[in-house]
Design a protein that fits this description.
Belongs to the LptD family. This is LPS-assembly protein LptD. Component of the lipopolysaccharide transport and assembly complex. It is found in: Cell outer membrane. By secondary structure, the chain is mostly beta strands. The protein has a domain of 191 residues: Lipopolysaccharide (LPS) transport protein A like domain (lipopolysaccharide transport protein A fold, Sandwich). 3% of the residues lie in helices and 59% in strands. The chain contains three helices and 43 strands. A hairpin with a 3-residue loop joins strand 35 and strand 36. It is elongated. 20% of the residues are buried.
Length: 707
């Protein structure tokens, strides 16, 4: 320690360049000082710390007269900006800001490595390198050629601007030269945002041929950027994709889209789409969300693999959710891409509004609620409907000493309708009053056998409601009622307000759950709905028609680590004939994921919305398998059992390591409409660590063999 302190004091007194700045620290196994003090020679494990920079070397010689440092390797210079310079020999000034380096290698942000025959350090800002090879791949004696590399005559690294400039560069893949670039500029690794070209992606399709996307990213200040992507295909189609993003103090917007500059598929037409969205935090706890989704024609999105959606929704929402109240305001429009749907008959929501508030009130730990809602539907060709509704309700519950849980509800709702442009309704103004009362009894039983805990819960619910209305009411928002384990004990199984269940009914069911101490559990729900009067509001496919509903049974199993199974089915009440059902099995682990499922829906001629569809049976399978440390397979398969044909077949293969990720995919999609034919598609993407992307931590770093 005395030797180190003495050297530090001597350096501060004798080195003019070092004495003017921060303190200099010199650590070495041996320090020799010439007789006149002009030359200092440090040898052994030498470390010099000065102005945030650290120089490590086997030997360092400082010439006071020339104010120069000579470092003999192996040399390691840390500049303090995630930049490490390795070299065999270096001649530097005393500030370590200028000099020549032999056998240089730069390591940037622990990712990109740049090796050179020689180099120079200029002004403490630039690292100039000659005859360079750059890569972020691990290189070993048994693997001397990296997966990718850039060979260049000259490279300049600007530490202040955080840019790397290549001159006369070749890009090699697996040792083979692929592309010559007379000049190339890339951001230094670790830079989050920088203007420049991104990696291209390649694709192909039976529809547009072969295609390449050439994205270019532009920084527009600290809070905004845009990506412009020409999409060029072999069928003489050129699209321009754009994605603009901006963050504000209270929110953000994202404006995306694509338009054809030239279209080889539909010559003479301007085709494209927009997909804009945003979110803002407003005053008093309100949130604003919006989306604008439009396309020029029914086929564009599927032709160029942007989306499989057959309906696009645009909306503006203002919402606030608090513990005792909520408010929702919405304006919405829809664009149908389905065959045979008339755009003029699709309603615009202008607007919808709903608010509700609850208070603690009354016995049985009661809660009193009140609400108001408005729905205005406007069509360019067809019926317009304005609904104003509101009401109040009270809910309470109590648990008896025997363990029986009692719950009661009372609800009164009033609606007023204005109906226009529909000759099928005699009354232009219609009112409705809907009172509802209900009670629910639950009696859970628990049995602990030591090996597991079993909970059995019988449930009985009695509900009565009636509708007093002055005329027929159009059903706009309640088209798809269904019976499942989540709606078995609902007061109203219609999804909206236009249609309401009426009459006396009893909802009877039982829940069973098994809790295993090893962490897995299984549950089973079964039940049925009984009515005093059958009515005609429900279709056969809903499972709710008649005096007695279909018998519902649902089961689930959750087995750690990562296995889940769910199944549900409806059976006819008289014959227990299978009506509809589904099952799903999912398993997730580090190396392997799989999800498979089956859905059966019988044809229902009474259903207002689905009567045109035949019986449907579909099987699906998706999987991911990491079959080697650096290789991963993905697959997806959907099959129509009713039509005995595949709907979708898709496979992907990805290779990834510390320096690259290469993904290839191929798929075949069955035509679901007359707009787009059946097509086969493929895609190829390449991400290189250090060239605009960071390493993916999911991929392991390759190691070299120990000799």
């Amino acid at each position: 320690m005395r030797t180190i302190l003495a050297v530090m004091i001597w350096l501060a007194a004798t080195l003019p360049s070092w004495a003017q700045g921060e303190e200099v620290t010199l650590l070495a196994d041996r320090v020799d000082i010439s007789g006149n003090g002009d030359v200092i020679t440090a040898s052994g494990a030498v470390t010099v710390r000065y102005q945030g920079q650290v120089l490590e070397a086997r030997r360092i010689i400082y010439d006071r007269g020339a104010d120069r440092l000579r470092a003999e390797g192996p040399i390691r210079l840390l500049t303090g900006d995630n930049v490490i310079v390795l070299a065999d020999l270096a001649e530097l000034d005393a500030d370590m800001e200028n000099g020549l380096v032999m056998g240089a290698r730069l390591i940037l942000d622990e990712q990109l490595q740049i090796a050179a025959e020689s180099g120079e350090r200029i002004g403490g800002r630039y690292n100039g390198l000659d005859r360079v090879v750059a890569s972020s791949c691990v290189v070993c004696a048994e693997r001397p050629t990296p997966l990718w590399r850039i060979r260049a005559r000259r490279v300049v690294h600007d530490e202040v601007a955080e840019r790397i400039y290549f001159r006369d560069a070749w890009f090699d893949l697996a040792g083979y030269p692929i592309l010559y670039l007379p000049a190339l500029r890339i951001p230094a690794p670790g830079v989050e945002r920088a203007t420049g070209a991104l990696m291209p992606t390649f694709s192909g399709s039976d529809i547009y041929g072969y295609g390449v996307k050439l994205p270019y990213y532009v920084v527009l200040g600290d809070h905004a950027d845009v990506t412009l992507t020409p999409f060029i295909t072999s069928e003489r189609t050129i699209l321009l994709e754009s994605e603009y993003r901006q963050n504000f103090r209270s929110g953000n917007i994202e404006l995306s889209g694509a338009f054809s500059l030239t279209d080889g598929l539909e010559p003479g037409e301007i085709r494209g789409f927009v997909a804009n969205r945003g979110h803002f935090d407003l005053a008093y706890g309100y949130d604003l969300d919006f989306e604008l989704n439009l396309v020029t024609d029914d086929a564009f999105l599927q032709e160029f693999n942007y989306s499989d959606d057959d309906r696009l929704t645009s909306f503006l929402d203002v919402t606030r959710y608090r513990a005792s109240d909520y408010t929702e305001f919405r304006i919405a429009g829809y664009q149908s891409l389905r065959d045979g749907e008339d755009a003029g008959e699709i309603p615009l929501v202008l607007p919808s509004f709903e608010t509700r508030k609850v208070w603690d009130a009354g016995p049985l730990d009661g809660r009193l609620g009140a609400g108001l809602d408005v729905m205005n539907l406007v069509r360019t060709d067809g019926r317009d409907v304005l609904r104003l509704g509101g009401g109040g309700d009270w809910r309470g519950s109590h648990t008896f000493d025997t363990g029986i849980q009692f719950a009661a509800v009372g609800d009164l709702r009033f609606d007023a309708y204005h109906i226009s442009d529909d000759a099928g309704f005699d009354e232009e103004f219609v009112t409705r009053t809907l009172p509802t009362v209900g009670v629910t009894l639950r009696w859970p039983w628990a049995l602990n056998t030591g090996a597991a805990t079993h909970v059995i819960e019988p449930i009985a619910q009695l509900v009565y409601s009636d509708s007093f209305q002055s005329g027929d009411i159009p059903n706009e928002d309640s088209l798809l009622p269904e019976l499942d384990e989540t709606s078995l004990f609902s007061l109203n199984r219609f999804p909206g307000q236009d249609a309401q269940e009426t009459g006396s009914r009893a909802n009877i069911g039982i829940n069973y759950t098994r809790y295993d101490p090893n962490g897995w559990e299984a549950s089973l729900t079964a039940g049925q709905v009984f009515r005093e009067e059958a009515g005609d509001r429900f279709s056969v496919g809903s499972g709710l028609t008649g005096l007695t509903s279909d018998f519902i049974i649902a089961a689930s199993v959750d087995l750690p680590p990562g296995l889940e199974m769910n199944a549900s089915a409806l059976f006819a009440p008289d014959s227990l004939t299978f009506r509809q059902g589904s099952f799903a099995i999912a398993y997730e682990s580090v190396k392997f994921d799989v999800e498979t499922g089956y859905v059966f829906l019988a044809a229902d001629p009474q259903d207002q919305t689905m009567s045109l569809l035949p019986e449907r049976q579909e099987y699906r399978l998706s999987t991911r398998y990491r079959f080697a440390p650096h290789w991963e397979f993905t697959g997806e398969f959907r099959y129509d059992l009713a039509e005995t044909r595949s709907i979708l077949r898709k496979a992907g293969l990805t290779y990834g390591n510390e320096c690259a990720e290469i993904a290839f995919s191929v798929s075949r999609r069955l035509a679901t409409s007359g707009n787009v034919p059946t097509s086969t598609n493929f895609g190829l993407s390449l991400n290189l660590t250090g060239l605009g992307s960071r390493s993916n931590p999911e991929w392991p770093t390759r190691s070299c063999a120990v000799r």
